[in-house]
Design goal:
heterotrimer, A: mainly alpha, MetI-like fold, 12 helices, C: mainly alpha, 14 helices, MetI-like (chain C), Sugar ABC transporter permease (chain C), MetI-like_sf (chain C), transport (chain C)
Chain lengths: 275, 447, 305
């Protein structure tokens, strides 16, 4: 293979990859751009590629809704639910990976099958439960639900990570007289940290984007960003620009967070589940 | 922060309940503690203005704080219904339609309202007020109300040498539409709701069917969708939209059509009267100078209920701040509020369709040339009036029974399928008849 | 974790833990198991109970025992089969697209090219966008037959814009949902490819294997476990797709894009028929468990390997 052909091939590959990346990203880019248009600009045909950017839609969005209140709820709920799910799933995954019994596999599969409970079918029972426990419109309520819905996936992912940890290392620790607590906190967790981090990241993303329970179980005090979007999604009058601005605001934090932590996510996954 | 543990929350709630009770007792007393009202509302333009202006209310009522929950209509409806039916008491003030008010009032879920003399309840348009009254008591106060009328583009009519009569018939509408349609320039003669939903395409279709002489049920609750009248109405609807409608008619609801008409893509549009204020607003509409209006068209039957919708403020019986809530509700639906909006946003933006005094105002008539049309349309909406055959239900463009949300949505989808060409009109009506029959059987309405 | 440690062969999990250790294991497992038991059994019990009751939130006159009538109502619905079929097409279609395209793109993005880091970040971005927003975005800004960017592009080249959501509702939904999940597949599969030893690939290349042969005999077998992971997680979410449908087509036109979750919603929950919705919930749980049984068995086999 000549050097020239190799270079041409590289350019072709780069071109194809970039074309795909831009095509996939385009809708998001367009949403961000539309947020900076005026309402009539946003529905002009054909669409204007070059326009005079304005912050008027953003101003209106901020004037109408207290964005920071929703964003803070989203952050609090996602972080707390992810931490809770990880704290619960570490011991469970440890037991499954290192102390397997006859029923371990069955338990794991059963856990995953609980995740398939369809929300529309159980809305009213859950609503009644939330009401009688005083958890309606509280962050605690959503944290509990998100912890429980994500738990099976977390346990399963951590289990696959833990299985990659060489048993001899743990055994060596045990020979030195480490208690189980020390074995977990001082040997296992440091080794599996990348895996735990990416599990947590995935949980954060899933919590942030959940829109069924958050819309139905909260109203104001604990309402996260999906509720914020629901107040802009189809009002009377022109709304494309405002909707785009609100959507950009709702998506931006997790998108930037995802971009920044992308390497971490990949590093963790490499370590376990998909190796 | 309210992350408190569950027992703490229950305790707090119990406290609040007690506080609420004592407040009821003390309501007449001079001073009471500050209360927070949670208001659930839709994201429509008039409500957005109300939210903006509510600062004025808080200024004049320093002991009442307002907490707003603004949601898209469908989400709001599901949220509020679940809340009130389970008596969860999350909201103190609800924004609900005249569809819900009588049904909920009969369940005892709403607090009866007794506005004082200064409020002048007799100033409310009679047909609107009738829809909110059950057994002589008012259960909600109207924030704005709408009926139906025909919008058209004067410039396009002039160019085609046509004149719109004050009260057109559906045959005329079709003829006009055929003449105006110019698909090459993306001008479509007729825009109508096609987006499935009981409050979207079925609102229009129900009023169309009424004037064609059809109806949803006979006195024994037997569905009548297999009648010749339904067939005639639906055939007109599908035929007209296919020939002269915009592409993608099945995804156009009120809002989409408003945008289409406002950006110059529609020749005519038959829809809610609230669109008037928006189409005449040059900031929202490119065709503000060329909008004409006429009454809603008449079909072969020529009578029948047309359309009456109102968005109202109501107070759930489970609220612990009934007295304060009523203070806000009467403020937001008062004559003073109308004047406040006129001062801050201009007369064209005031909530329409609720008060006679609004229509008597010379300033409003000047700012809103469509005012008298809207007034007449609401007066003639006749939601409990006779259909061609006697009917057991009330409602103009809906059926005032709890099952209608599901029925309307289902039939709305079937009508949309006919409109998109997936099924024929005959096929659609057979399917619709069967599915409505199933639902009324299951719910025990029809034996 | 450093390379040296990773090279240590993974011993099979210790043969048979002692009795004491197994008791400890049960203890460690119990918090998660107990919570999940409560979470799955309490709503399930309530759902089962309501599903045989006549119970409508907005009609308190409906009370009493309903027998099987709630189930009969749902199962004899002429649209039930359509909804099942649509669910299968939606899940299957998205899985085929995301796994198929995801594998190819993962290989593509594994090559070195200019600006690879940024391109990768762009391509995984849709995964971070909430489903409601992506549905609104595609419906209004991209595919709208008049204002949509895609329609403008079609008009620019002299074609008539297609009203995607009413002409091809299910296919369009498959497309939108695939857009949301393709990044996830790429992320997982790319990671898996990267963990493949460069030496192994190099060796294959030295042996004269062409790119196709390398893909077929080295990369694909290596990916099988990652692919099961993708299928597993995606299926969990795809069975319950709801927001995308309710925002874009509301299940229509007709029932062309109604899946099981949306059918339950529109037949029962919309009229606040708790009995009917519960029966639907039970049916959905049974179906999900049938799917789960097949799927999980496949996953489990792959995980043991």
């Amino acid at each position: 293979m000549t050097r020239k052909r190799a270079r041409l091939q590289r350019i072709a590959i780069g071109g194809a990859a970039w074309a795909v990346a831009l095509w996939v990203f385009f809708p998001i880019l367009w949403m961000v751009l539309t947020g900076f248009k005026t309402e009539p600009d946003a529905i002009s045909t054909p669409p204007h590629l070059i326009f005079h950017p304005t912050l008027s839609s953003y101003r209106e969005v901020f004037a109408r809704e207290t964005y920071w209140h929703f964003a803070l709820n989203s952050v609090t709920i996602s972080v707390l639910a992810s931490i809770a799910a990880i704290l619960l799933s570490i011991p469970a995954a440890y037991a499954m990976a290192f102390l397997p019994g006859r029923r371990t596999r069955g338990t794991l599969l059963w856990m995953l099958s609980t995740r398939m409970l369809p929300p529309v079918g159980v809305l009213v029972p859950i609503y009644l439960l939330a009401r009688s426990t005083g958890l309606l419109d509280t962050r605690t309520g959503l944290v509990v639900i998100y912890t429980l819905t994500n738990l099976p996936i977390m346990v399963w992912m951590l289990y696959t990570f833990f299985r990659e940890v060489p048993v001899p290392i743990l055994e060596a620790g045990r020979m030195d007289g480490a208690t189980r607590w020390q074995e977990i906190t001082q040997v296992l967790l440091p080794l599996a940290l990348p895996g735990i981090a990416s599990t947590g990241l995935l949980s954060m993303i899933l919590c942030w984007n959940e829109a069924f329970w958050s819309l139905n179980l909260t109203s104001s005090a604990a309402a996260p960003l999906p509720t914020f979007i629901a107040s802009f999604s189809s009002p009377e009058g022109l709304f494309f620009a405002k909707l785009s601005a609100a959507s950009t605001l709702a998506v931006a934090p997790i998108l930037v967070f995802g971009w920044l932590s992308q390497k971490q996510l990949v590093r963790g996954l490499t370590f376990g589940a998909v190796k | 922060m309210r992350v408190g543990s569950p027992p703490a929350r229950i305790f707090k709630q119990a406290l609040r309940r007690c506080a609420g009770l004592s407040m009821l007792v003390l309501a007449a007393g001079p001073a009471h503690a500050a209360s927070t009202l949670t208001i659930a509302t839709v994201n429509n333009a008039d409500m957005v203005i109300m939210k903006q202006l509510s600062g004025e209310f808080e200024k004049s009522h320093p002991d009442i704080h307002l907490n707003w929950v603004t949601l898209e209509e469908n989400v709001l409806r599901q949220r509020v219904t679940t809340d009130i039916a389970t008596r969860s008491g999350q909201f103190d003030i609800l924004t609900i339609g005249n569809y819900e008010v009588p049904i909920w009032a009969k369940q005892g879920w709403l607090a009866a309202l007794s506005p004082d003399a200064a409020y002048d309840a007799d100033d409310i348009l009679p047909s609107v007020k009738a829809g909110l009254t059950v057994d002589g008591k008012l259960y909600a106060l109207p924030f704005y109300a709408e009926s139906v009328m025909t919008y058209y583009r004067k410039d396009l009519f002039a160019k085609a040498g046509l004149t719109m009569p004050d009260a057109p018939t559906y045959d005329q509408i079709r003829t006009f539409a055929d003449k105006i349609t110019d698909k090459g320039n993306q001008v479509y003669g007729l825009c109508l709701r096609g987006k499935p939903g009981w409050g979207e395409n079925m609102a229009y279709v129900t009023s169309l069917v009424n004037t064609f002489g059809g109806q949803w049920f006979d006195m024994a609750w037997r569905p009548m969708l297999d009648s010749a009248e339904w067939k005639a109405a639906l055939t007109w609807y599908v035929g007209a939209l296919k020939a002269d409608g915009p592409p993608g008619a099945t995804s156009n609801g009120f809002n989409e059509n408003l945008a289409l008409f406002g950006s110059g893509h529609c020749g005519m549009w038959i829809d809610s009267t609230v669109a008037g204020g928006l189409l005449f607003d040059p900031a929202q509409s490119h065709v503000a100078g060329n909008v004409g209006f006429a009454a809603a068209p008449l079909g072969p039957y020529g009578k029948g209920p047309t359309w009456l919708w109102s968005w109202n403020l109501a107070i759930p019986a489970s609220s612990s701040h009934t007295a304060d809530a009523q203070t806000f509700v009467t403020w937001a639906t008062s004559k003073e509020y109308v004047r406040l909006v006129a001062r801050t946003h201009g007369w064209v933006a005031v909530p329409a369709g609720t008060r006679l005094s609004t229509y008597d105002s010379a300033e409003y008539q000047k700012a809103a040339p469509f005012a008298s049309f809207v007034h007449t349309a609401i007066d003639r909406a006749d939601p409990n009036g006779p259909t061609k055959q006697p009917r057991p239900y009330g409602g103009a463009q809906f059926v005032a029974i709890p099952q209608f949300q599901a029925i309307g949505t289902q039939v709305g989808q079937i009508v949309a399928a006919a409109l998109s060409g997936q099924t024929s009109v005959d096929q659609a009506l057979t399917t619709a008849q069967a599915s409505v029959t199933r639902t009324v059987r299951q719910s025990g309405l029809m034996r | 974790m450093d390379q040296a440690a990773r090279r240590i062969p993974v011993a099979a999990p210790v043969g048979r833990p002692s009795h004491a250790r197994r008791t400890g294991g049960a203890l460690l497992l119990s918090p998660a198991v107990i919570l999940l038991l409560i979470w799955s059994l309490v709503p399930l019990a309530m759902t089962l109970w309501y599903s045989v009751r006549r119970y409508n939130l907005v009609d308190p006159t409906q009370v009493g025992f309903a027998g099987a009538s709630n189930y009969v109502y749902l199962l004899t619905d002429p649209d039930f089969i359509t909804a099942l079929l649509n669910t299968a097409i939606l899940v299957g279609g998205v899985l085929v697209i995301t796994v198929g395209l995801g594998t190819l793109l993962a290989v593509l993005f594994d090559q070195s090219f200019l600006g690879r880091g940024i391109a990768r970040v762009l391509v995984i971005s849709p995964f971070f966008v909430m489903p409601t927003v992506s549905a609104l975005l595609w419906k209004n800004l991209m595919l709208h037959p008049i204002y949509g960017v895609y329609s403008a592009m079609m008009r620019a080249v002299g074609l008539t814009p297609v009203d995607w959501l009413s002409r091809y509702p299910l296919a369009t939904l498959v497309m939108i949902v695939s857009w949301e999940w393709l990044p996830f597949a790429i992320l997982i599969l790319l990671t898996a490819i990267q963990s493949l030893d460069a030496e192994q690939k190099e060796a294959a290349r030295m042996d004269g294997a062409g790119p196709l042969a390398q893909f077929r005999y080295i990369i694909l077998p290596h990916l099988s476990r990652a692919i099961t992971v993708v299928i597993m997680i995606e299926t969990i979410f795809l069975l319950a797709v709801f927001a995308e449908i309710s925002v874009t087509t509301a299940g229509g036109p007709g029932v062309a894009s109604t899946n099981l979750a949306f059918l339950i919603y529109s037949r029962a929950l919309l009229q606040f028929d708790v009995g009917g919705a519960s029966a639907g919930g039970v049916v959905a749980i049974v179906i999900a468990n049938i799917v789960a049984a097949f799927l999980l068995r496949a996953v489990a086999r792959n995980l043991e390997a």
